[in-house]
């Protein structure tokens, strides 16, 4: 049942992202959905429960299922649901996630230098030994940003990053497959090493803001005209 439940959930998420049906409207009945997907009503009920838990819908009395205004009422679980169930991650949403990181990454970089410059410098010193391939750089880049988030002392930052980890991994992989973006990343690591080695928190904030803005611009340039970014596996 689990596999067929995931199939139903994925199909309904794809519809909801396209506005079918729109917020405030109702989904088909369990019986109609079961017939449509050639599954049992129990399977449909399980899929609907998952969608309700993620904030997509509300199952009301008499089994009436209403589509929520999920973009304004949802939370981080909605992003996780999109990641799990979308074949192509919406490029506009991916861009918005990178815009969000542009807002908080400079702050956790500055705080990390203020709180543990030596520890951060030790992590950054390893960058030169990282293989020049997308997979290795993605892994290192994630470890670096998570370390800075933890070192910042703000316990919310690691939670936010973990919520988006698979999405960010896919976005970074898409960018780091190109040599020019790998060079940009290595330039950022060198500048951050200088900031951490000298205890210059303001420099760390500045170079991180510039690097995150460059990644956002690069992503929009590369994927702006595409239908979607391949969703994380």
Features:
disordered C terminus, transcription, Arc Repressor Mutant, subunit A, Four Helix Bundle (Hemerythrin (Met), subunit A), 2 domains, 11 helices, mainly alpha, 4% strand, TF_FadR/GntR_C
Task: Describe the 3D structure.
- It is a single chain.
- With 233 residues, this protein is mainly alpha-helical.
- The protein is 72% helix and 4% strand.
- Strands 1-2 form a two-stranded antiparallel ribbon.
- Helix 1 packs across helix 5.
- The two termini are 21 Å apart.
- Mean pLDDT is 88; it is low at 225-233.
Sheet of most strands? 2 strands, antiparallel
Number of strands: 4
Helix residue percentage: over 70%
Structural class: mainly alpha
Report the CATH C-level class of the largest domain. Mainly Alpha
CATH homology-level superfamily of the largest domain: GntR ligand-binding domain-like
What strand line-up does the widest sheet have?
Answer: 1-2
CATH domain topology of the largest domain: Four Helix Bundle (Hemerythrin (Met), subunit A)
The span between the termini is 21 Å
**Poorly predicted parts:** 225-233
Number of domains: 2
Order of helices and strands: HHHEEHHEHHHHHHE
What's the gist of this structure?
Pfam families: FadR_C, GntR. This protein is mainly α and 233 residues long.
Blueprint of the fold:
Layout lengths: L1 H16 L12 H8 L3 H14 L2 E3 L5 E3 L2 H4 L2 H10 L2 E2 L1 H35 L8 H18 L4 H8 L1 H12 L2 H20 L2 H23 L5 E2 L3
Antiparallel strand pairs: 1-2, 3-4
Helix pairs in contact: 1-3, 1-5, 2-3, 6-7, 6-10, 6-11, 7-8, 7-9, 10-11
GO biological process, one term: regulation of fatty acid metabolic process
Protein name: Fatty acid responsive transcription factor FadR domain protein
Organism: Geobacter sp. (strain M21)
